[in-house]
């Protein structure tokens, strides 16, 4: 058994220790259930607008999927037929899944197990999805001039054509304060105010109807757990029976109604966190500023005697173990650069309040303690650092770091907040940012996300292409029009100018590719629940991909920046300043 005790931060309760080990030891299987239910929904509703089709799909899944409540858990809600199994999302692609049915168990990393029955189930639904999925639709949207970049894998877009996207945190604070009921009421008012003689309002009309469908589906999903908990309580021992009946009471209430206690708040947030990853297989769906929106419930429960610090920490550890049960299967090619089945679900604590005060509160410390006790790769924990951060809290962060499992990460308010403001984010929202995914940041509950900027432009590769007059040395194909060969260059300034021109040309091509894929995501796989819970999609009557979020920003990702800098510095010094090598000698070097 893996050691989980940490003397400084205490240790897991016995049942959470057992639960943690059970989840860690669980073999991950490929799960076809979601794929089968999604296929049924798409076949039944294939002639409906995309928003409605997606809403009915989520409804079909949530009303019919396998559910269970683990003996050790105080929280209900599962993504797949059993913990850590990976559901399949055929509306994005089945291509790599079908190609790798017999390879999943033979991988060097990210091994998944699969039964012969599951293989056949996936083969049976495959004909419906042929040329009827996101990857296929994106492929036909790509202009001819960018085909060479896709054929050679120059742009790392596989993840965006094979799956949804996320990299955001929904408005969990509003969810807890108003429940889904509040979102539903706002959508009804917005729908009633539509002037349907305006063409664009027809799409809004269907968007609002799709919101009603998914909210009702989530309510049904929660009530299924309430019913299950009551059934399990009939044969449970007295202590567990009381817990199960409380789970039933809570699941009858949230997330549709507002939360009033910490237990209700945790359950409400978990239901949504889990369902968002049933709706879409995009990763980096994050919890946002967890200690800020959760603390009022912790404070009230402690003052009323409903909870103790120990019971709060136990429920937190339960939530983090639950978070680890979410899984996603990627193609074998993708695992070479993203091993470990990472989901990048980020929890942010600390930082500053919207009125610029230190935001550390007692829950911030309890989150640290709970993460220290679980010592898991999920969720990611991020602490927002600023010059006024409480010293005691900073020391506690260091103690967690000393445990050696890579958490917490630190984000620097002194750099990030001014950067947000410079980009047009309001000052209050900038002070309310959170980490999303591995290193990105966003305003929780107000941030849309686009794949644009996600082609992972390889800077060292572009340097080689620049030096080879626009031709890729590996494939021999021309990627840029060329600005001379390196061996004929006489100055560093000439190389730098050629690099700049080549980068601009290739960046333009990446924007074309990304726009096409982003358009495919908008048209084919709108995420209705995620959109409804992000401001101001309901107010604007648009999904996230249509520009419904308050901040619909694009951010770029480049790779190899440090290697590029080192390479340019070496070329400048050794070739053009000191003359230790001529350009010809360097280019011909083995």
Please provide a written account of the structure.
One of its GO terms (cellular component) is cytosol. Keywords: Acyltransferase, Transferase. It is built from 25 helices and ten strands. It is globular, with a radius of gyration of 25 Å. The chain has a domain of 133 residues. With 590 residues, it is mostly helical.
What gap, in angstroms, lies between the N and C termini? 50 Å
Low-pLDDT residue spans = 1-5
Mean pLDDT: 94
Query: What percent of the residues sit in helical stretches (DSSP H or I)?
Result: 40-55%
The total beta strand count reads 10
Structural class call reads mainly alpha
Task: State which percent range the strand residues make up.
Answer: 5-15%
Number of helices: 25
- The strands making up the biggest β-sheet line up spatially as 3-4-5-6
Quaternary class: single chain
Morphology: globular
| Cα Rg | 25 Å
Q: Describe the main β-sheet briefly.
A: 4 strands, parallel
Layout of secondary structure:
Elements: H1 14-25, E1 30-31, H2 33-44, H3 50-64, E2 86-87, H4 95-99, H5 116-129, H6 134-141, H7 147-151, H8 158-161, H9 172-192, H10 200-233, H11 238-253, H12 262-279, E3 288-289, H13 290-304, H14 309-324, H15 332-335, E4 346-350, H16 362-374, E5 380-385, H17 391-401, E6 409-412, H18 413-422, H19 427-430, E7 434-436, E8 440-442, E9 457-458, H20 459-467, H21 492-524, H22 528-532, H23 537-540, E10 558-559, H24 561-577, H25 583-588
Parallel strand pairs: 1-2, 3-4, 4-5, 5-6, 9-10
Antiparallel strand pairs: 7-8
Helix pairs in contact: 1-14, 2-3, 2-5, 3-10, 6-21, 9-10, 10-11, 12-14, 13-16, 14-16, 16-17, 20-21
Pfam family, one: PFL-like
EC number: 2.3.1.54
Domain PFL: 14-590
């Amino acid at each position: 058994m893996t050691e989980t005790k940490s003397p400084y931060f205490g240790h897991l309760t016995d049942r959470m220790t057992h639960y943690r080990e059970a989840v860690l030891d669980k073999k991950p299987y490929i799960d076809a259930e979601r794929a089968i239910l999604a296929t049924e929904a798409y076949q039944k509703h294939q002639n409906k607008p995309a928003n409605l089709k997606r809403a009915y799909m989520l409804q079909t899944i949530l009303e019919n999927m396998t559910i269970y409540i683990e003996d050790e858990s105080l929280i209900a809600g599962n993504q797949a037929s059993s913990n850590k199994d990976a559901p399949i999302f055929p509306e994005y692609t089945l291509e790599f899944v079908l190609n790798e049915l017999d390879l999943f168990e033979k991988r060097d990393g990210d091994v998944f197990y699969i039964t012969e029955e599951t293989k056949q189930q996936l083969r049976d639904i495959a004909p419906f999805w042929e040329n009827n999925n996101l990857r296929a639709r994106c492929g036909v949207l790509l202009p001819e001039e960018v085909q060479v970049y896709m054929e050679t894998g120059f742009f790392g877009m596989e993840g965006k054509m094979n799956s949804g996207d996320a990299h955001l945190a929904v408005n969990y604070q509003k969810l807890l304060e108003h429940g889904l009921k509040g979102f539903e009421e706002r959508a009804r008012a917005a729908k009633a105010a539509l002037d349907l003689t305006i063409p664009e309002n027809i799409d809004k009309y269907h968007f609002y109807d799709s919101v009603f469908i998914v909210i009702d589906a989530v309510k049904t999903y929660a009530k299924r757990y309430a019913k299950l908990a009551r059934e399990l309580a009939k044969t449970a021992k007295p202590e567990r029976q009381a817990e199960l009946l409380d789970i039933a009471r809570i699941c009858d209430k949230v997330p549709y109604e507002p939360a009033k206690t910490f237990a209700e708040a945790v359950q409400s947030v978990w239901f949504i966190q889990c369902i968002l990853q049933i709706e879409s297989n995009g990763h980096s769906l994050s919890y946002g500023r967890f200690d800020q929106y959760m603390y009022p419930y912790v404070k009230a429960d402690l003052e009323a005697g409903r909870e103790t610090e120990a019971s709060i920490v136990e429920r937190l550890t339960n939530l983090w173990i639950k978070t680890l049960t979410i899984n996603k299967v990627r193609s074998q090619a993708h695992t070479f650069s993203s091993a470990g089945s990472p989901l990048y679900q980020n929890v942010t604590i600390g930082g500053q309040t919207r009125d610029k005060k230190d935001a550390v509160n007692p829950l911030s410390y309890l989150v640290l303690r709970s993460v220290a006790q679980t010592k898991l790769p999920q969720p990611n924990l991020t602490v927002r650092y600023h010059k006024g951060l409480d010293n005691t809290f900073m020391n506690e962060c260091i103690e967690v770091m000393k445990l050696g499992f890579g958490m917490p990460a630190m984000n620097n308010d002194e750099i990030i907040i001014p950067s947000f403001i410079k980009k047009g984010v309001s000052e209050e929202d900038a002070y309310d940012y959170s980490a999303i995914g591995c290193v990105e940041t966003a305003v929780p509950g107000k941030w849309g996300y686009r794949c644009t900027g996600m082609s992972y432009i390889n800077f060292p590769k572009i340097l080689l292409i620049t030096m080879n007059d626009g031709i890729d040395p590996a494939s021999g194909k021309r990627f840029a029009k060329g600005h001379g060969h390196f061996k004929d260059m006489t100055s560093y300034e000439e190389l730098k100018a050629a690099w700049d021109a080549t980068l601009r040309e290739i960046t333009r091509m990446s924007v074309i590719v990304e726009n096409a894929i982003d358009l495919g995501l908008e048209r084919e796989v709108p995420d209705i629940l995620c959109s409804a819970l992000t401001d101001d999609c309901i107010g604007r009557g648009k999904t996230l991909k249509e520009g419904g979020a308050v901040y619909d920003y694009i951010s770029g990702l480049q790779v190899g920046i440090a290697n590029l800098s080192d390479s340019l510095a070496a070329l400048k010094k050794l070739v053009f300043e000191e003359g230790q090598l001529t350009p010809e000698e360097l280019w011909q070097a083995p």
